[in-house]
Amino acid sequence: MLLKGMVQDDVDGSVQNGDAIIGINEDEQSVDAIKKNNIRQDSTIDLFANIDKSKLDNDVHLISLDELYERFHTDPIQGLTSEQVEHAQQQYGKNKITAPPKPGYVMLFIKQAFAGFNLILWVGGILAFLAWKPIGEPNPNIANLALGVVLFASFSKLLPTLATVRRNGDEQQIVADQLVPGDIVLIRLGDKIPADCRLLLCDGLKVNNSDLTGESKPVSCTVQCTDVNFMESTNILYYSSMIVQGTGEACVISIGDKTVLGKMNALTRDSGHDEITGLHREVNRFVLFVCASTCVAIIILWITWGSWLNKDHKGFLSVSDNIINSIGMIVGFLPVGLPSAVTLVLTIVAKRMYNQRVLVKSLQIVETFNAVSVIATDKTGTLTQNKMTVSEILWDTQNVYKVPVPEYIPAQDETIIDTVRRLSVGAYNTARRLSMGAASVVKRLSSGNLTQVTQHETNPDIALPSLASEVNVQAFRDLLLGAALCNNAEKQFVQEAELGGDIGNMKSELKLVGDAADTALYNLCVDRCFIDVDKVRKVNPRLKALPFNSANKFMITGNLLESLELPPSEDDGRDVLITLKGAPDMVLNRCSTYKTNDNIVLNLSQDIKQRLVERQEELGKLHFSKNGYRVIAMCQQKMKKKGYDYLMSQYKQQEKERKEDQEDLSGFPSGEYSFIGLFSLLDPPRPEVPDAVLKARRAQIRVAMVTGDHPTTAQSIAKQVHILTTEIADINGIDTFKRSEKDGKFLLNLYRNGQLTGTHVPGEVKKLDIKESNTAKTTSEQIDDKPKPNIWRRAWSRIKLQFSDPQSEVNRDKQELIPYAIVVTGSEIQLMDDYMWDWVLSHQELVFARTSPEQKLKIVMEFQRRGEVVAVTGDGTNDAPALKRADLGVAMQAGTDVSKEAGDMILLDNNFASIIKAIETGRLLSDNLKKVAVYLLPGGSWSQIWPVFFNLWFGMPLALTAFLATVFCMLNDVFMSLVMVTEKPEKDIMSRPPANRNKDHLLNMKLLFHAYAVIGNIECFTGFFCFFYYYIDNGIPLNHILLQFENFTATNSHFIPDELNTIVYTGQCVYYCSVCLLQFFNFFTSRTRYTSFFSHNPFYGKGQNLYVIVGIGVSVGIQVIVTQIAWFNKVFQTAPVPVKYVLPTLGFGTAWFIIDELRKLYIRKYPLSFLAKIAW
């Protein structure tokens, strides 16, 4: 175990120094004797490598109780005094685990205000102010000042719990963070251990240490030390562990960060990893592209002006005009709507994920979901329900009742009609159960016997009713009665304080408390058989109980049965039901009779007993491979109350004379019971997991099970949830490998379906020869002893990391997956070299069983070395390193706080299916950001830079001013891009392969070609067509527009200057409105990548997005305000636009819409065609 390896060195050191050679139990068993029985197995990874081990009190479990009291200055009867507590609190502080440091909000503001696109806007804003004054003197243009203003305007813990302690001789409840070492803590069922403690007293105490070990099996506690290893000794209780049975008292030995959990938390908190997410890099690459493009365009602009225009056409453009053109270039290349779109899409994703019961700690990590190619998942609690469930009830020698499992129906949007139907059906079922129960009571009352049941001949071949209330078999009813009475599970109000809330205002939540078997039987009675357990227990009060313990392996209860014939005052005449449940072998040995299906009690002969044993074995063969399979047998015995009282009085009289080795059953009979039947229990898979795994497989994501359970159990659950499928695991085969020895050399024998297929010599580095061209590169070929790079190389590496993903050592594209399954155990992982890892991880279906936490971490690292993007689930403290290392760490809400801190996201419902939903949401995020880019670049970039270049090179009037370009980018396009990010997923989004981080960037050549060369050129052509159409229609021919430079006014002298200025301003607004209108068509074509508009339209159906109407309305409104309102016309030099001059845009837009629909149809029909390969 991971934690065992962490502390073993400390214990060994203390023993060697002679500090811990102490008698620890009544048999004076020495520490050396314990060490001989506990051979250390070295861990691969030491999680306490950075911790001073000399400060760990790892002998505290070895010393005697008297030494313990002396060390912590405490008293088991009186506890600590108030003065001691105050002094200890000053010395040790509060019992809290240090939270991670909070971010500095000033630095966050600076980063947001000056990073990325915002820095470019700062530059543009400053230039606009300079163009107004002083460069714009002596006639500063107020529009330049307004442009600058517009540019600047574009920036737009552990929950407190209570602990019962003994202080100053009194028991009192305190807040857990007030505990100090030496406090005497009182422990009972359902408590959460508030600190690391040493047990002083225990009565049938069992604790769940899954927070640390990841194993949910309860551990029986003792007062004596049972292991020299601190983490293995059962007299130590660890912070955050849960008490599942019994009571006890303990002494606090460590609090807060000094606890084992605290040390693990510090490790995961301090160990950093690459905090630069894929989304950061995508945006950084976008910024780099924009900066480079803007710089190149501005350099061309100034070279053109300085070397040609300022000499040959002096007076055509002034310095101020050229600065404004430079600003136009900045705004033209800058997709201003992208930062807002990224913010909004992350907000939408956060809301969507919360509705899917997923909490993402950093929204930037969501982009990683799009690239996840492997999910390494736990089994218990993630794939399975982590709840024992009764699957079958058996009685007699062949009768069985299969407990109905509710059919899983995926959650869908519910209409009003569905709601009415659901409520009416629920009301009908409730009335039906009540009427059946009433009829049963009337029939029993009329017969004069409350316990009488109508008998009939039952053929075991005839199927029993699915409803338990309709099964009229007395043995079956007795089993249910025993399940309700011989059961310690009960519902209790558990108090918990809200985060940051007042301890005095704690909320109480009703929860079922008890061990796994008792809660399974309780849920059987309540949920499946509709029995009011509380009422049954009330009318059949418990007289006495013998709790289950590891020695007896059974539980006995005595209950006074209800009687309608006798008044309550005459209890002596009533029957007492003694029920015994436990392990089948222990129960059968105490039975002399058994009850048949016909309610006849027969002698339990050796033959019948053998048949019952064989039946149990057959049941075991049937369910052995199922997770957590368990069988509980039950028997009973009835006697009068007088007889029961006599037994109890005899027990009390003989109690003092009883020998230690004599069986103590608290007065209950030791035999002569009547065998009733068996309960079959198992931990079933979550009903929604199989569909989720199939959905992941369709998305070409491999799901690998990594569990600590037995390989057979893991393999069975993997088949039930489709991790191992019929097509691959059953038909093609399952691979395994085993270690062998030949001629003094160790070999690994490779098997397929049990047949030897090859051998491999461990340690010899080989290439995985799947195909000649698919050779994987191994790390042995890399030279590791390179000199440390200098400061400049390190700085360059950090800068490079901002833009490019870390390169994996092995390229996944060079390793082809093979259509076989494989099951690997933890003991075999230690034998694997690079060749074996290549071979194992090339399988399409993978199951890793009996793995330790360090092996889980190794599996994650090996996946990553081969270029996989790995998502890992974990709930225990020992899962923290793997969660931290993974590309996407998925913690469970039911897990430890350390695992939640290490993970990137938390599943609030602990459900594997939520991971698949999160991946789908991550793909939607990536899709929508690409769509935003495709939408923004043509109109907000390409269509804005060419008017500037045409103005420079062809001496024509500027077709689009910097102000109109800014309004277009920051208002028109921003609103429409925000509508784009609210788009719903296309139907094929989960049938695409995971994104390749090295190729599938937000900006790539395919997207740029589509945005600029295709849509951008269409928009530019349409805008200039409408622009020239307006000029020609107003009496200015094409030869009076082009190549006129400073002579434009003189050439068109038949217009007075004011008229000519109005034509220029109107032409600019015509270009602006034309591009705005064509952007609507661009929106409708870009909102789907491959799906037809008509099957994913925004007006109805699954693709409905009515925000489109709002976005179009706002964009049209902005155009009207800018061009039609006189104040804007005067200040910003705009003019009203006649509608007829932008109507050609409708024709061009419709033509483009039809062409794009045909393009998508061709891609869907021919997905391997050239057109499909260049599609964005």
TrEMBL record:
Entry keyword set: ATP-binding, Cell membrane, Membrane, Nucleotide-binding, Translocase, Transmembrane, Transmembrane helix
Protein name: Cation-transporting P-type ATPase N-terminal domain-containing protein
A GO molecular-function annotation: ATP hydrolysis activity
TM ranges: 104-130, 142-159, 286-303, 323-349, 932-954, 960-982, 1007-1032, 1063-1085, 1106-1127, 1139-1155
Domain of life of the native organism: Eukaryota
Subcellular location: Cell membrane
Membrane topology: Multi-pass membrane protein
GO BP, one annotated term: sodium ion export across plasma membrane
Gene3D superfamilies: Calcium-transporting ATPase, cytoplasmic domain N, Calcium-transporting ATPase, cytoplasmic transduction domain A, Calcium-transporting ATPase, transmembrane domain, HAD superfamily/HAD-like
Domain Cation-transporting P-type ATPase N-terminal: 59-133
Pfam families (UniProt xref): Cation_ATPase (PF13246), Cation_ATPase_C (PF00689), Cation_ATPase_N (PF00690), E1-E2_ATPase (PF00122), Hydrolase_3 (PF08282)
Gene Ontology CC entries for this record: plasma membrane
PROSITE patterns: ATPASE_E1_E2
